[in-house]
Amino acid sequence: MIKETMTSKERVEAAIKLEPYDRVPVAPLMDVMFPSRHKGMTVAYGISHWRDGFQAIVDIFDEVGGWDAMILPGYSLALTPKVASGVMASMGTRGYKFPGQDAAVSENSQPQYEERERLTVDDYDEIIKHGWSGFAERNRERYTSFPPEQIIAWAKKQTEHYAREGETWAQKGVPSLCGAIVESPLMFLSTKRSLTSFTMDLHRIPDKVEAVMDAMVDEFITDTIEAARLTGIPGVMLVLERGGCFYYPLKIFERFEFPYMKKMIEAFAAEGLITVMHFDQDWTLNLPYLKELPAKMCVCELDSTTDIFKAKEILKGHMCIVGDVPASLPAIGTPEDMEAYCKKLIDVVGDGGGFILSSGCTIPADAKFENFKTMIDTAKNYLPAR
Amino acid sequence: MSELAEAIAELNEDEAKRLVREKIDTGVEPMSIVDECRQGMDIVGERYKSKDYFLSELIVSGEIFKEAMAVVEPLLKAGEQADCMSKMVLGTVKGDIHNIGKDIAGTLLTAAGFEVYDLGIDVAPGVFIDKLVETGAPILGMSGLLTPSFESMKETVKAVEAAGLRDKVKIIVGGGIVTEQVGKYVGADAFTSDGPEGVEICKKFAGRQSK
User: Collapsing DSSP states into helix, strand and coil, what is residue A134?
Assistant: First the structure.
């Protein structure tokens, strides 16, 4: 074991601020799935029983001797007490098929996103005219059967849970990085229109799509800042998948994704909030643009499909990189495979600091415990030669 | 390159629609229209390979191609089919309901001349086997986005073996997190996380190289 001279909080803050640390911090993106299975519960049970599910995360943390940070503190939602926030959350959760609730999604599967249209092209005009909140309030009954007062009560409860999860980790000396979660307007619209329909919208009616984004982004910003204030955790996860080079050419990214990302991250930074950019899929060609974002106020979290080594070359000295153990490794790899990959990450991406070892997206439900523990242990034990 | 092929390659939806209608109205053989559309899709695939196009262009061109086929296919004479590259069975494996990658692959394979039997999502091993037996398809494509799909892929490969089809059927697995390690783990002949690359692999399986 490397002789530790910093607390987890100091180590993680040093990584984000690109300052020296005693060893590479490790912070898996951990939700309830893998811990539930490891503790003998089904994923379905863990998801639907907040107390037991969250305790399973805490238990697995203790079993491996702990790690340095929670990227998200648990699996509750951080919401403002508004109808529009509840509607947005409902649109998101209703997009998923949850384990045990559908024949195709077993009790031990992770929730699976069902790609279908939840917004129509006609909805664009209403969003442009009334803004996101106006649209959500006027169309509430399309997305939830609950009346406004129940939606607000539910949103408050979710946020209380979220804050309590964060407080639990804080008491263990483990910082949580994200006090709220938000999608970019492109991500939001793509998932709610469906990838194919949204891509055709960009092709057929680009000006209207841009107008919708303009009508939404300021509310996304103010709501997210408010949610982070309510949970008391000074950071934001910005969920990004659909706007990168895996899907779109740079001309689309430059017009429909990056300006909004930048506006959001700059606004969060002005409030002292660190943004964890949660990149799913390949964003390698987009990486140079990230140097325009506020230095040391955002974090680039990768899932193994973006070239993390290229990211290090480009972003070194500008922002911390988090990642990127491929999901297949904990699931079907061996401890030796895991150790070798983590060492490579520590050697190359950890060189000179600014790196947090993590899973590429969440630890999968069918991860093997010994592989997961190897990831944690390698960060604690492996000191690179230079 | 024909005007129609160019319109598809340039993602000019309105022009492609107009040209298809014009060709039908002027008595052009429907099969010839199909061939022109496929030529356009081939160019899209080439531009994707050279990184001039991205997934979005595959999606847009695929939608234009499907719109054209919806008009032209009913006009094909009974029994008339485009030169079939090969039959192929395709689906997202048991326990996985993700369809984006599978659908894009299906469109690209169809445009490349494959006769695709798309079984949809959450497809059990036995359903794949039944369709392979029914159609005699020599290629099986399985898609999955989640790690548990690896076990379903593996079970399906074993079912293909148990059915005595393994030496007759080439198997390719695909998906966003499918790696070489996954391909080996499940016992597939090939793997990909890239639609056009998957089409090229299937062409090789069918004994046809890309033009």
Answer: helix
